[in-house]
């Protein structure tokens, strides 16, 4: 017999004992269910004397996305008691609750399930209980309960408790709690309190244990303070065996999605450094409704060696980059973008970490820039664009300079013979400087220069489609291009540190080729992707002086995407006079269906003065088995004939837990500014609970 049961009863039953923290079976029990409720059963009867409804035999009750199945369901319409027995199974979306027996009251919303098992897709929770009672709107009691995120019948780990009292948005108080690993109890607590809040909550985080050859043993403990919905903070105390106690504060806020920031403060009375050391880092992003934005990125440290010893303290910067930082920048930026215009400003301050005295470091505040993208000039066939810059350069105990640069252009694009795209451009660059020396009696001077420049650009496009015998086709686009630039020889005043703009008569020529792959699937649907991009270019200088080469080096770039597992990018410069490659940058990324990956970055740069660059970076991930993975990363310097730093890692990752072990080996820099160090890290993760260990 099939029909609709419109009492709001079964709908409520469909949600009972589900989504409880994840610590039990019910945290989201609605008082009523929207929409119709359908019931199917072999037999549906009503007893007028007892005022009860009974559904028997393959009972299936549906409400929206929820389905309840049982052998028998009885509703007492007087007391509003509901009882479901026999192979009870409730499915809500992708979550499934099964039990042998369920009782509840629709008026009080109180009830009990027996021999229940809850499986959730989100978090992969597996929760069982010999009995679970709902004692109130947010109170539950669980007997003989277990919790794990493992799928196996014999889970790799699980928690068990003889009895647990749970208050949603409060705490779970467990008695006789045990932690099992591989079926063996390894931890026991007669009395355990665990938070069950779904929202952020105040409390202690997992402790951190670690060690380093430079810092000694490390022990850290953090306290998280959920101040409000839009603010929180973390207080951390860390003990370094060779340095002492380090205090840290992280304060985060997010007033809206368009207004958020973070303040990090660190302090340590460093026994190894023999002095007080600190760092203050502040980030803020503000986006206004009218498109205006303002950002702050402040980085201040107590001494030049701070980032060498505490390289993890700067957010968004890798430890390797932080250790090798030479110029630490702080800035406040602002601006606004329109459709064809943009305005950007910045106040910046630099700390030169290579010098003890920062008074002679040039600072720039403010720096203002306004740009107009190329666009039609009123109702004429001409286009125009504009770039304007203003900056104030400051150096303590030295001169201060105000700088302005105005650079408008006029262009006339046209097509020649319906084949060649032409665009002559004329511009005029006006540069002004107001210098003044430090002192009350200094007088400002004004210097300026005006330089015209001219250029003409020409290109054409040739395309051809190559069809294959299969489902693929390729479109090849070739774009040859020539640009001539001219700047006349004009006398210029001495603009202090600005180099004069020299006369120019140079022609640039090159060719760009694109290859796009088209694939047709069995349904006749087409997909496109880049397959190859190649560019080669050179220039000829008509004004080359005696001893200089008229022809420049040849530069080329090749990007390849043979398939979704391979990507290669090569950029190189070839000096045809010496027959040497002066620059070579190679990026290669490889992966496969198993998830293995290899990334290689090679950089070579030959310079006339200073040191050449010749390094390679490798990052590899190898899936030995489904559970065992190997990690290797290194940076090798061919000039030093040594590895700058290397990382070796082993990951063991069964279905519901993970063990990470890595060794990070850092070599001493040639100048001795960065000491050698070996760091060890062991992290143990229980899926669904969190990560703890040593780093």
Helix-strand layout with pairing:
Elements (H helix, E strand, L loop, with lengths): L1 E3 L4 H7 L22 E3 L2 E5 L4 E12 L2 E11 L4 E12 L2 E11 L5 E9 L6 E11 L2 E10 L8 E11 L3 E11 L2 E12 L7 E2 L3 E5 L3 E13 L2 E10 L3 E13 L2 E12 L4 E13 L4 E10 L4 H4 L9 H5 L3 E11 L3 E12 L10 E14 L6 E12 L5 E12 L2 E3 L3 E17 L10 E13 L2 E6 L4 E16 L16 E17 L5 E16 L12 E10 L2 E10 L4 E12 L5 E9 L7 E11 L4 E10 L4 E11 L4 E10 L10 E10 L3 E5 L1
Parallel strand pairs: 15-43
Antiparallel strand pairs: 1-2, 2-4, 3-4, 4-5, 5-6, 6-7, 7-8, 8-9, 9-10, 10-11, 11-12, 12-13, 14-16, 15-16, 15-42, 16-17, 17-18, 18-19, 19-20, 20-21, 21-22, 22-23, 23-24, 24-25, 25-26, 26-28, 27-28, 28-29, 29-31, 30-31, 31-32, 32-33, 33-34, 34-35, 35-36, 36-37, 37-38, 38-39, 39-40, 40-41, ...
Number of strands: 43
Mean pLDDT: 86
Q: Report strand %.
A: over 45%
The proportion of residues forming helix, as a percent range, comes to: under 10%
* CATH topology heading of the domain at 2-199: lipopolysaccharide transport protein A fold
Overall structural class, as computed from helix and strand content, comes to mainly beta
**Low-confidence regions:** 1-34
The largest β sheet comes out as: 30 strands, mixed
Please tell me how large the radius of gyration is. Answer: 35 Å
């Amino acid at each position: 017999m099939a029909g609709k049961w419109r009492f709001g009863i079964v709908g409520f039953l469909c949600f009972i004992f589900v989504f409880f923290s994840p610590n039990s079976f019910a945290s989201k029990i609605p008082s009523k269910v929207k929409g119709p409720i359908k019931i199917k059963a072999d037999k549906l009867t009503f007893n007028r004397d007892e005022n009860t409804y009974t559904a028997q035999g393959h009972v299936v009750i549906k409400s929206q996305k929820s389905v309840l199945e049982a052998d028998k369901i009885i509703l007492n319409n007087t007391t509003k008691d509901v009882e479901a027995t026999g192979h009870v199974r409730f499915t809500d979306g992708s979550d499934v609750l099964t039990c042998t027996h369920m009782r509840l009251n629709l008026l009080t919303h109180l009830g009990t399930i027996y021999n229940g098992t809850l499986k959730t897709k989100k978090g992969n929770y597996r929760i069982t209980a010999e009995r679970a009672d709902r004692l109130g709107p947010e109170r539950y009691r669980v007997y003989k309960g277990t919790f794990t995120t493992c799928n196996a019948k014999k889970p790799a780990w699980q928690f068990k408790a003889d009895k647990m009292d749970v208050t949603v948005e409060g705490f779970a108080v467990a008695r006789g709690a045990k932690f099992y690993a591989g079926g063996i109890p390894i931890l026991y607590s007669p009395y355990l309190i665990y938070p069950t809040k779904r929202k952020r909550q105040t409390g202690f985080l997992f402790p951190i244990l670690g060690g380093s050859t430079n810092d000694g043993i490390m022990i850290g403990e953090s306290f998280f303070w959920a101040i409000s919905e839009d603010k929180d903070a973390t207080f951390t105390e860390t003990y370094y065996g060779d340095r002492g106690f380090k205090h840290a504060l992280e304060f985060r806020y997010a007033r809206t999605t368009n207004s958020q920031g973070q303040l990090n403060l660190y302090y340590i009375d460093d026994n190894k450094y023999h002095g007080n050391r600190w760092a203050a880092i502040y980030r803020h992003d503000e986006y206004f409704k009218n498109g205006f934005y303002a950002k702050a990125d402040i980085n201040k440290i107590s001494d030049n060696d701070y980032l060498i010893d505490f390289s993890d303290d700067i957010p968004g910067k890798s430890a390797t980059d932080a250790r090798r930082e030479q110029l630490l920048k702080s800035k406040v930026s602002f601006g606004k973008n329109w459709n064809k215009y943009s305005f950007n400003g910045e106040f910046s301050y630099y700390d030169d970490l290579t010098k003890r005295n920062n008074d002679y470091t040039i600072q720039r505040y403010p720096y203002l820039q306004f740009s107009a993208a190329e666009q039609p000039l009123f109702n004429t066939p001409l286009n125009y664009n504009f770039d304007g810059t203003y900056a104030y350069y400051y150096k303590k105990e030295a001169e201060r300079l105000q700088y302005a640069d105005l650079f408008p252009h006029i262009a006339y694009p046209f097509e020649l013979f319906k084949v060649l795209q032409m665009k002559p451009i004329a511009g005029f660059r006006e540069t002004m400087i107001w210098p003044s020396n430090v002192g009350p009696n200094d007088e400002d001077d004004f210097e300026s220069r005006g330089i015209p420049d001219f250029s003409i650009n020409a290109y054409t496009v040739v395309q051809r489609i190559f069809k294959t015998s299969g489902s693929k086709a390729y479109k090849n686009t070739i774009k040859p291009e020539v640009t001539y630039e001219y700047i006349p020889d004009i006398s210029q005043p001495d603009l202090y540190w600005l180099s004069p703009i020299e006369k120019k008569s140079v022609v640039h020529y090159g060719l760009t080729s694109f290859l796009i792959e088209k694939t047709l699937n069995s349904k006749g649907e087409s997909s496109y992707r880049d397959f190859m991009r190649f560019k080669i270019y050179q220039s000829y200088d008509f004004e080359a002086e005696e001893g200089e080469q008229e022809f420049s080096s040849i530069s080329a770039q090749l990007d390849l995407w043979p398939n979704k597992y391979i990507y290669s990018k090569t950029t190189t410069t070839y000096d045809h006079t010496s027959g040497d490659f002066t620059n070579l940058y190679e990026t290669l990324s490889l992966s496969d269906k198993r998830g293995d990956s290899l990334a290689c970055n090679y950089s070579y740069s030959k310079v006339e003065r200073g040191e050449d660059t010749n390094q390679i970076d490798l990052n590899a991930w190898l899936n030995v088995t489904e559970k065992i993975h190997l990690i290797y990363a290194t940076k090798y310097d061919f000039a030093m004939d040594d590895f700058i730093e290397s990382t070796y890692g082993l990951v063991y990752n069964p279905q519901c837990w993970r063990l990470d072990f890595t060794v990070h080996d850092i070599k001493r820099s040639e100048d001795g500014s960065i000491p050698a160090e070996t760091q060890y890290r062991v992290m143990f993760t229980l899926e669904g609970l969190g990560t703890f260990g040593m780093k």
